[in-house]
Write a structure and sequence with these properties.
The chain is an alpha/beta fold. The chain has one domain: 3-Layer(aba) Sandwich (Rossmann fold). It has nine helices and six strands. The protein has a six-stranded parallel beta sheet with strand order 3-2-1-4-5-6, sandwiched between helices. The radius of gyration is 16 Å and the shape is globular. The termini are far apart.
Length: about 190
């Protein structure tokens, strides 16, 4: 089985996340893309409650048989470290000879060398990188560049940070998130 994990805060999950996941799913012929929302991201101070982000993610991926959600990091609690999640999922899914993939955006790759056990992550799985606008490979240490795979997908200029800012500024986020996610943000009075 060829599985790709897609970790992140997903606050909120947006069309860019979904387009990247679907495009990578098709390009790499994955059996499944599993979204893994972080409980407490090590690199962010402010974020919505985990249950809120999981609910939005469920609404965003609903009806797509290629996508699943794992709440493994939320159940584990504490700070969410990628290496712990990769090892736990490999154990949970009884991965032996199959290769596990882990999808990240190139914005995350800039800080990858500072991630907990970053070298072990590269040994435990194949990191697939979706290139975001403004990315320059020259900013990445060679020991990382030689062990990752760049996804051949279109670039999408949508970010959760921008969506939250637009919401606070009373600007539309239509077409940036799915309608069910937009309705959930409105009902729950998020980002106000």
């Amino acid at each position: 089985m060829k599985i790709c994990l897609f970790g992140g805060t997903f606050d909120p999950p947006h069309i860019g996340h979904l387009l990247i996941a679907q495009t990578v799913f098709e390009a790499e012929k994955f059996d499944k893309v599993i979204f893994v929302p972080a409980n407490k991201p090590p690199n962010k101070k402010a974020f919505s409650a985990p249950a809120t982000r999981v609910e939005m993610l469920k609404l965003a991926v609903e009806g797509n048989p290629n996508f699943e959600i794992s709440d493994i990091e939320i159940k584990r609690g504490g700070i969410s470290y990628t290496i712990d999640t990769i090892r736990a999922i490999k154990n949970e899914l009884n991965f032996k000879d199959d290769k596990l993939f882990y999808l990240i955006g190139s914005d995350c790759l800039l800080d990858f060398h500072n991630w907990k056990d970053s070298e072990s992550i590269l040994e435990e799985c194949q990191v697939v990188v979706a290139i975001r606008p403004g990315f320059r490979p020259s900013d990445i240490p060679a020991w990382i560049l030689h062990r990752i795979q760049f996804a051949n997908i279109p670039r999408f200029e949508i970010s959760s940070t921008n969506i939250r800012k637009r919401w606070v500024d009373n600007k539309t986020i239509r077409y940036m998130v799915t309608l069910p996610v937009w309705e959930y943000i409105e009902q729950q009075k998020l980002y106000s």
